[in-house]
Write a structure and sequence with these properties.
There is one protein chain. The chain is mostly beta strands. Helix content is about 5%, strand content about 35%. The strands form five sheets. A six-stranded mixed beta barrel has the order 3-4-19-16-14-15. Strands 7-8-12-13-11-9 form a six-stranded mixed barrel. The protein is globular and about 70 Å long.
Length: about 325
């Protein structure tokens, strides 16, 4: 293992090993919270906030789709060089590249005491999802950190207290019984800094666990896989100004579809167009194009893949 990766994992050292409550069944020890500084840069707070602008926040940005403005959280770009290409020389992400897993618990758990945010580290009225990996800063020449996970339900667990399960390893070791369902799907679950939650209540971060450590994540929903085994994407165009990045809150972005539309995907195959145009609000696939629609056939300069989580403004 690379020294940098060892260092990142070391930062996830337990803050304490005390479990909560008096459960009659097995309970994973509560180890505190993940150290967010070990997360890849894409998952760090990315905008200034506060009256003095010295704080860092997860702030939603604006984009356009089919003439309508939308709000979303931008989870950063994976450059084209880190991706494979299809026959049309377009950046492609193989579904097999997603190796992290998250387990959900559809069966009812036994609720504990009511949550008190002043004294309690976590709620005891529902079981959080459990992750088996984190999107840590990758070693040099290693694959890019992704906000994608393989999700499946873990069922058949003996009666347990809510959030008694805090580690995927204890599930795999049979501590709680049960097993993962055969059905598996991909989802966008971007792990973020638990202490710096999103600035809009419409996109509250969900809670989860990793090796007894508490985490928060932005849930971008299910991600489809094509017949070729690739992560399904939608088109997007970044109208690049003289400076800045596609993640800037003021970046001009136009996407193929909005959430709820058939072509929508939280994974965007992004093209780059110089000029920073403020006129386009939709994409066009066949001429003649409307005045506010950008003709995709005019540009094939791909930047990479952008990951996003929709947010209601």
């Amino acid at each position: 293992m690379q020294t940098k990766q060892k260092w990142a994992l070391t930062l996830l050292t337990a803050w304490g090993a005390m479990s909560c409550g008096g459960s009659a069944g097995p309970v994973d020890a509560y180890q505190g919270a993940i150290d967010p500084s070990a997360l890849d840069a894409k998952f760090q707070p990315f905008s200034a906030c506060g009256k003095d602008g010295r704080q860092r926040c997860y702030t939603p940005a604006k984009a356009f789709s089919n003439g309508v403005e939308q709000s979303f959280y931008n989870l950063g770009l994976v450059e084209k060089a880190k991706l494979t290409e299809d026959a049309q020389k377009r950046p492609t992400l193989k579904a097999s590249a997603v190796t992290a897993r998250a387990y959900d618990f559809p069966e009812a758990c036994t609720a504990g005491k009511a949550f008190d945010e002043r004294t309690d580290a976590y709620r005891q009225d529902a079981q959080f999802a459990v992750f088996d990996a984190l999107p840590l800063t990758p070693a040099t020449n290693a694959p890019a950190a992704l906000p994608l996970v393989r999700t499946s339900a873990w069922t058949g667990v003996t009666p347990f207290d809510c959030n008694a399960i805090k580690s995927a390893q204890s599930l795999k070791d049979g501590v709680f019984g049960g097993e993962a369902s055969a059905d598996e799907s991909l989802a966008l679950r971007a792990v973020i800094d638990l202490s710096v939650l999103p600035t809009r209540p419409s996109a509250q971060a969900a809670s989860g666990w990793y090796l007894g450590l508490q985490l928060a994540y932005l849930d971008g929903g299910a991600v489809a896989v094509t017949e070729e085994g690739n992560v399904r994407t939608m088109d997007g165009v970044w109208f690049k100004g003289s400076s800045g990045t596609a993640r800037d809150l003021t970046a001009r972005l136009v996407f193929q579809a909005r959430p709820g539309e058939p072509d929508f995907s939280p994974v965007v195959r992004l093209r780059e167009v110089a000029g920073g145009s403020t006129t386009y609000t939709s994409l066009c696939y066949a001429a003649p194009c409307a005045a506010d629609a950008y003709d995709l056939s005019a540009n094939a300069t791909y930047t990479g893949m952008l990951f996003l989580v929709p947010s209601t403004p």
